[in-house]
Structures are given as C-alpha cells and as structure tokens.
Amino acid sequence: MKIREHRGLLADSMETVKEIPNTMQAVLNEVNLSWSNTPRKFCLDDISVKYYCYDERIKWDCYIVEIKGVGVHGFTDQRPTVEGENFEEELRKDFALKQNGFHISLLK
Questions:
Q1: Residues 6+ apart with CB under 8 A from 91
Q2: What is the pLDDT of residues 13-40, one digit of tens each?
Q3: How far is CA 26 from CA 19, 21, 29, 43, 54, in A?
Q4: 3 state SS of 90
Q5: CA angle 4, 92, 89 (to 5 degrees)
Q6: Residue 101 three-state SS
C-alpha cells in the first residue's frame, strides 16, 4: 500500500510517497516516524483511516489518514487491515461506501 503525507501542493505530497505493509500498525509506524522529531507518540486509537475519494490526477482511491486532536496526516491508496477483522466483510462495506459516495470511518 502507498502512503503520502499531506502537503499544500499535490506534487509536494507525492514526493513523500512510501510503500508500506497494508496494516493499521504500518500506518501508525509511519505517523510516528513523521513525528519522530517531537516527544509525541501516537497509538492505534489516535489514528483513523477512511475512504475519501478517487483522485483522477494520480489514479488513486484515496483514504484519508487523520490523527485525533491533530488533523490530517496524509493519504493511503488502500484501506489498511486491522488485526482480527473479517477482511472480506470489511471490503464489501468499503466497496458499498465508495459506490454511495459516503465518507465515514470504518475504523475506530
């Protein structure tokens, strides 16, 4: 899965693209790595990833990565998995949300 940090310009954001495992833990690790020059460390409860939109410019289904109390961190091109979830059922829900244009969090 790809992850990129939020920037003012798309070109600047695309310069931060990294390939990471498709898990919430990997997203958390990337968030904490980005914040490594601060004393702040986040946990899984601080991070949410939800479907945002299809971005025609970069041909990504974009999932917004938000940090509780901070705001938008960036975007991924896939919905990360969470240990213990029924992956097939979550994919069906995710697909239905995209089809209906809803922007709600499937992850807590």
A1: 79
A2: 999 999 999 999 999 999 999 999 999 9
A3: 10, 6, 5, 12, 22
A4: helix
A5: 100
A6: coil
Q: Is 87 helix (H, G, I), strand (E, B) or coil?
A: helix
Chain-wide mean pLDDT for the chain?
Answer: 86
pLDDT at 64: 97
Give the 3-state secondary structure of 19-60: ECCCEHHHHHHHHHHHCCCCCCCCCHHHEEEEEEEEECCCCE
Residue count of the chain, please give it.
Answer: 108
Of 49, 54, 78, whose CA–CA distance to 64 is shortest? 49
Structure tokens at 2: 């790809």
| 23 alpha-carbon distance from chain centroid | 10
Burial of 28 (0-12, 13-18, 19+ CB in 10 A): buried
